[in-house]
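Lecture notes, continued. The same structure-token format from the folding unit now serves as the input rather than the output. Read the line below as a description of shape only.
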């Protein structure tokens, strides 16, 4: 599949990368309908994020459709969803206190080794760990509106 890949400071490219596969019963695979470029992606582009190595697939804001899922994912194949930029298990001590960013098994899509080493969503498909907590169904909402819930609005609200 095609994806946007970090090549080094001030260099990105659309390249052929391996298709993601389900790795856990709590994973979902999404066909990406829309992904966004975030100000945080520019920090990566400028080479300022340690742990983002050349070859990292970028992107953490996305809307897509579930095309495959593990048995513990409560949404049906075909469901349109928005993704949270941040992955959290929902069950560890930090998650139980609502401190999702401190999740011991969490991460951020497209942010390299320091944040879970999860390939990003500026790609034709993306693997979503802990899909029950990471995805939210959007029905027929326009993707351009729903995508704002994944980081832009929620980060501003949190701030
Ligand atoms: Zn963002
Ligand atoms: Zn957790």
């Amino acid at each position: 599949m095609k994806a946007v890949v970090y090549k080094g400071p001030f260099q990105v490219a659309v390249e052929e990368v391996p298709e993601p596969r389900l790795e856990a019963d709590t994973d979902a695979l999404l066909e990406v309908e829309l992904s966004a470029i975030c100000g945080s992606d520019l920090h990566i582009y400028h080479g300022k994020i340690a742990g983002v190595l050349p070859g990292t697939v970028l992107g953490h804001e996305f809307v897509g459709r579930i095309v495959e899922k593990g048995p513990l994912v409560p949404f049906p194949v075909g469901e349109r969803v928005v993704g949270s930029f941040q992955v959290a298990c929902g069950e560890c001590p930090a998650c139980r206190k609502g401190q999702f960013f401190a999740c011991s098994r969490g991460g951020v899509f497209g942010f390299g080794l320091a944040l879970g080493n999860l390939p990003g969503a500026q790609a034709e498909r993306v693997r979503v760990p802990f899909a029950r907590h990471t995805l939210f169904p959007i029905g027929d909402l326009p993707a351009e509106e729903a995508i704002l819930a994944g980081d832009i609005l929620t980060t501003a609200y949190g701030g």
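Point for the exam: The chain has five helices and nine strands.
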